[in-house]
Write a structure and sequence with these properties.
249 residues; mainly alpha; Arc Repressor Mutant, subunit A; Four Helix Bundle (Hemerythrin (Met), subunit A); three-stranded antiparallel beta sheet; 71% helix; disordered C terminus
């Protein structure tokens, strides 16, 4: 079950069946996070405690704990005497995120090539295959595969601190990915973009599989450049009042 499906399941059934002893706070956190990342709760949306209690059929404590945890991850803004809202997403946020990913992703892929296990390779390959198989109208599936690909790459470093930091950046990546997905383009343009990404995904996987850390690092930089160019095109063609500064390279 992907993140969005989990959130919808919780919405429809109230309290989901506990998986592995998950608490109400954990389940509420996961469901609310999925709704934010999927865009159902957009940037700047108010997060009223009473409404969330009703929506998820839980008490106030799990909701408050979920909001606090999400605020620590940058997805929610806690406002004194005004409650909580989904964190805004503007040009500065996107630029900051790209700079972080420019630093982290090549390092993650470099270490993954040196330390990966057979299980790590299988997890990375599974998500690469998912991404390469998704169609133009399968945004939720694509975002979920991206989430698990980044997670698998971070895990393959076998550096818990780096993997944790990298995982936190994924949440911003998925929200920003929706900006890129909103870009107006022809079928031919989308097909060309996907072909470019498929080549990079396979290059990263093959380099990690071969233990070629240098090439894995170079392929990761190429990946980040493709993402930067696409986002630059998306936000320049569809600016909003919340996006006040321009992306720079």
């Amino acid at each position: 079950m992907d993140m969005v499906s989990a959130a919808k399941s919780l919405n429809k059934k109230g309290q989901m069946q506990r998986k592995g002893g998950a608490t109400g706070s954990v389940r509420t956190y996961e469901a609310l996070k999925a709704l934010i990342i999927s865009g159902e709760f957009g940037p700047g949306s108010d997060l009223d405690e009473n409404e969330l209690v009703q929506r998820f059929k839980v008490s106030r404590t799990p909701v408050r704990e979920a909001l606090l945890r999400l605020s620590m991850e940058g997805l929610v803004s806690m406002l004194p005497n005004r409650g909580a809202k989904v964190s805004n997403l503007n040009f500065t946020d996107i630029t900051n995120h790209l700079e972080i990913m420019d630093i982290l992703t090549p390092s993650v892929c470099y270490l993954a090539a040196l330390r990966r296990t057979p299980d790590d390779l299988a997890a990375i390959k599974e998500q690469v295959d998912r991404l390469n198989a998704t169609g133009r109208d399968e945004l939720h599936e694509r975002l979920d595969a991206i989430f698990h690909l980044y997670t698998a790459l971070g895990k393959a470093t076998h550096n818990e601190s780096l993997a944790h930091l990298y995982r936190l950046t994924i949440y911003a990546k998925l929200r920003i990915g929706r900006v890129s997905a909103a870009r107006s383009e022809s079928k031919e343009e989308w097909t060309a973009h996907m072909a470019e990404l498929r080549e990079v995904y396979l290059n990263i996987y093959d380099s990690i599989d071969a233990g070629d850390a240098s090439n894995a690092q170079s392929a990761a930089r190429q990946w980040m450049n493709i993402i930067r160019e696409r986002l630059s095109s998306a936000v320049s063609s569809s600016p909003t009042r919340d996006m006040e500064v321009q992306l720079h390279g």
